[in-house]
Structures are given as C-alpha cells and as structure tokens.
C-alpha cells in the first residue's frame, strides 16, 4: 500500500519565477505536481518549455524538469515560506545531472552533477 | 511547445536496490519515469511503499519520492553507468527537504535540506 | 611538490555578512585564508566566535568553520562576483556535517549532512 | 573568544585513499587538520600534490584543497565511521567551485559548483 501523505498546506498552484529568466507554471492535484518550466522568459531568445513533475506535501515541494534536449535533467527540493505578509517564496536547492562521455565515467562520474540554489517568487503584477 | 528530449539509452525499467534496505521499482514510458519506492525491505519492520515520479533521458535519471507521511520529500539526480560488463549502477546525489517549524524558518530554513549519495544496483538473483 | 595556484584576483580580506546574523572576518595570505566566523551578531544573545580556515584563488573561495562546540563542522565553496558596480557578493553552497549517534550510523550516515546556500556581502557602513 | 570544540575522537592522522586515484595525508593538531592531497597516485601520469586545510572534532571532519592551479577549489564535509571491526571510512560530500567567465556570471553563476560524494579508506598494506 502506498503511504498517505498530508496534502499541500500552501498554494503552490500557478506561476513562479526565479529572477534569472526562468518561470514555472505548476498544477497541483493532491500531492502530485505537474507543469511546465520555461527558460529565457522575457528575453530576445525564444521561450522554451520543458516538462515538470513532482510532489508537494505540507509546505514542502520537490520537482524535476526534463532538459534532456540539452543533455541534462534537474531535480529541486525546497520549502514554501513567507518572506513578509502576502509575499511568498519557494526556497530550493537543486542537482543537475549532465551527461559524461562513457569512456570518462569511471573517474569523472561525480563531476557530472552540478549543485545550486534557486528562490522562486510570484511574478510582479 | 514542450521540447523533445532523447529517449533513455539505458534500461532503467524494473527493480533497483540501494544496499541500505530500500528498493525502487521503475516504469519508463518515453522520458517519463513512474514507480514505487520501498523502505525496510527484507527487515522485520513492515515494508512501506511511496510514490515515485521523474524523468530519464540518455543515461541520466532524476526522480522524486513522496515521503510526505514522514514529513519529507526527496529528489535524486544521477546517471546510469557500467561497473563491469553486465553489472550496472545508478549513481545519484539527493536532497531531502523536511519540514521546519514556521517560527524557525527565517534563520533555519536552509537547515531543512539534507544531502547525500546513493548507488542503486540490480538485486542479486 | 605542491602545485602553484594563481593568487586571489578579488579582495576577500575583511568583514562579510550573510544577512542571517552571521559575519566572517577573513585574512588572506597568498592562497591561504584564515579568520573568525561570528554568529548572533547584533542580537541580544552574545556573539560567539569560531575558527575559519580555507583557500582563495582567482575569484574562488573555499573555507570551513569549526562549530565543533555545537557538534558540527561546515564547509563552504563559492565565488566572488559583482552584483552591481562597487557592490560585491560571495555566493556559496555549503555542507554541514553533524554528529550521528554511532549505533544509527549504518542506515542514517548520510542524513548527517545538511546542505544550503549563503550569500555574503560587505556590511552596510 | 573563539569557542572550544571537542578534540577528534577518531584517528584521522595519516594516509587515506578514495579509490579513484587520489590520496590524502592528514596531520591533526587539536582540531586543526593540515595536509597534502595527491592525485593520479599509482598511475602513469605523475603524482601531483595540493595543499589541504580543515578541522576535525569528534568523528566529524571538514577540509578544503587548493586546486587553484587547475581553476578550482574543493571543500569536503564528512564523518569517520566503522565499516566493520578494524576497517574505517571517512564518508564525505563535496562541493567544487570552478571559475565561470565574468561575462557569464549573472546567469550561470550557480553552474560553477559541482557536487559529489567520496569515501576515503586506509590504503591496503
């Protein structure tokens, strides 16, 4: 039996931006998160869209985006938090796996994972 | 338009174990990964099952598991690799987000993320 | 022979703050970084000081702080960058190792590492 | 006043290997760790040596290595543990900061940090 998890306690639904030209649009159904991740938003280069899947429970969220077209997959883990009344942030850390040529794997495998932090906020109206 | 990613180049389908009493059973459809993550496998404590969702492209995989029942969500990113002929490993790093009490968030928010490494291999027959 | 590394290209010397009540005071000699890390700066609780050691080369810096009194050690890795002309930031990721009771180690060892991000800026005059 | 930390409870002193052609030789004085990190050990390519500095307290250790000659600095955080009686391991996670060209920094800064895991054991006699 798959274990029951508390539903999201926060409103993750809708659009979030990371301030670096990326935007995500989340749909939440129970604990399931699905959506679209957009890069180069508001830039001369065309906006590109990538599939997103994940989970939300309580004020926590994890999600992953399929950047396979560019040879990488990224997974985020984070928490919804209140910056100030009415202003919200999803504070995350991420790992990005990118392909390492097969012949270099034994020594370099770990060098195929990048790490970083992202804060997502609601777009300014 | 959602961007096209190369399909998985490796066989991620089926059962993988991490040697620490956890097991996952993956289903792959195109780039979409779904499945079940089991803990306490082979122990006196009962096996528990948790939902898993993610992506695979080339030899890369990302996935997240809904441990919301236990107040956490975990996201893995990694790569399929050959240890020796016929023996395979998914080498991953993970972030686990766990709930921080609201009143402690401003100072402790980052302390809500644990990090680690897991290697998943095929179960010994 | 120990390999030669380029000297720091940025001015890491002096006081930096992380906006969460912590402050560090760095001394740089060649590639060697030493200093003091202060917590609870500007708060009613007394300021505490902890030893810091690390390296700087080019615009990169790594350092670790001895929080052993509180059962943990933390290591940062990051880069000096320009936010806007005359305004600088050291953007870092960190791992904090904290003690796990010996009997829990086999299963929980990885859960002894927390991860996070810190941005250090010059104190406002 | 710099806070007092418990001394190391484990014997970190001496040579440790990561099984990927790297070796470190640690000296411990109180909580201070210094040493040399060697790469390409036992390979046709010549062994190179890099400075190491860090801390140990209880069974925890953090250290950083100056790979500045190769444009990177790495910081490890981990714990000494017993694999089986008489066999020890230092299980670590690391961040490697590598230089990002100044003009690419605003968007790519976080992509300058790699993450990974290393297990160090005593060399086989």
TrEMBL record, chains A, B, C, D:
InterPro entries: Avidin-like_sf, Avidin/str, Avidin/Streptavidin-rel. GO terms for cellular component: extracellular region. It is found in: Secreted. Gene3D superfamilies: Avidin-like (2.40.128.30). GO terms for molecular function: biotin binding. It holds the Pfam family Avidin. PROSITE patterns: AVIDIN_2 (PS51326). Keywords: Secreted, Signal. It comes from the Bacteria. PANTHER family: AVIDIN-RELATED. This is Avidin. It comes from Kiloniella spongiae. The lineage of its organism: Bacteria, Pseudomonadati, Pseudomonadota, Alphaproteobacteria, Rhodospirillales.
